[in-house]
Design brief:
Length: 339
């Protein structure tokens, strides 16, 4: 029995294995407990192992690669069409085994341990920012019920909380006490977010790849470290357009009958990365007025005929292509020179 390809359905404790030979005939169907997975793959000859890209897949990819296997991670959305009949773990493993055999299939880059650590810092910081946003929205809603409407700017809510705590508004004693608690919680969240932001800046300064792409206008330490953490093997993208499409910064297409129909951006990939790229592009747009370099002139021409949001996405797309070029070639970014 010669196994050439295995589809592995990952789980917390119970794993399903589906293996085929060179003639694509099923020769292995097995259920494994978590503690038996490593030993099982250590006992079989090296082969292609396919898994869905999910929590824990990058860890197992490293384990199997160290054992001599070729690992292929695939997006779950590309596995779904190959699931036969009802969905269960065993059918999922068979579908994964079939999907990774397709010659035109696209695979997910395997992340290193360092990339996963950087990504973890971003995920925790992102969660803290979301907690702060929820807290601010809640206190704004509570204050609005008492006739005190505060603008959405977070600096305004901080000022309003300070004024209420100092007794500048005629509110009930209980509400003032609650406001003081919220103010302390908001200050604590600000401190924690600032600490994680400092940690990201330290990671940026210690990583040469981050510093190279950080020279691009619209990409700072947070965006640069997030991109480096997300992009594993740059060879997975043939060109910059594929990288921009992976970020969801290209138009969604519904073409048929020789007629091209393009819509808004596809919004595929990681929303967090796409948001950082677009926010960075908006920052560049605010400072492009009056400049005479080729990049700023291109932005002004785009502004004359398109909506600012469209221009921001177009600039984010351009930045994504430049990032791919810098990462793939190892070259230094050369800023545009004023004409």
């Amino acid at each position: 029995m010669e196994i050439v390809r295995i589809g592995l359905d990952l789980a917390k404790n119970v794993f399903e294995v589906h293996g085929v030979d060179a003639q694509d005939k099923a020769v292995l169907k097995k259920t494994l407990r978590r503690d038996a997975v490593t030993q099982f793959f250590a006992d079989i000859p090296p082969c292609i192992v396919g898994m869905e890209a999910c929590s824990g897949s990058h860890y197992w990819a490293k384990v199997f690669a160290d054992l001599g296997h070729e690992v292929r991670l695939i997006s779950p959305q590309f596995v779904t069409p190959y699931v036969k009949s009802n969905k269960n773990d065993r059918n999922d493993a068979e579908a994964i085994c079939e999907a990774i055999s397709r010659p035109s299939m696209r695979f997910v880059p395997v992340k290193s341990a360092e990339q996963l650590e950087i990504q973890a810092v971003h995920r925790i910081r992102q969660r803290l920012v979301s907690d702060r946003t929820r807290l601010v929205n809640q206190i704004r809603g509570l204050l609005a019920e008492h006739g005190l409407v505060v603008a959405r700017d977070i600096s305004r809510i901080r000022l309003a909380l300070s004024q209420i705590a100092d007794g500048d508004h005629m509110l009930g004693a209980m509400l003032i006490e609650l406001v003081c608690d919220v103010r302390e919680e908001l200050n604590e969240l600000d401190q924690r977010i600032a600490a994680y932001t400092k940690r990201i800046r330290d990671l940026f300064r210690s990583n040469k790849m981050c510093q190279r792409i950080g020279k691009i206008e619209g990409i700072g330490p947070i965006t640069a470290t997030a991109l480096v953490a997300a992009v594993g093997d740059r060879t997975c993208f043939k060109n910059g357009r594929q990288f921009a499409a992976w970020l969801g910064l290209v138009p969604k297409q519904r073409s048929s009958g020789g007629k091209s129909r393009l819509f808004g951006i596809s919004k595929r990939g990681d929303r967090y990365l796409r948001t950082l790229m677009i926010h960075g592009a908006r920052a560049v747009l605010r400072k492009a007025g009056g400049k005479t370099d080729a990049r700023s002139l291109w932005i002004e021409r785009m502004r004359d005929r398109r909506h600012p949001n469209v221009v921001a996405v177009a600039l984010a797309n351009k930045n994504a292509r430049i990032v791919w070029s810098v990462l793939s070639d190892g070259a230094e970014y050369q800023p545009a020179v004023p004409t």
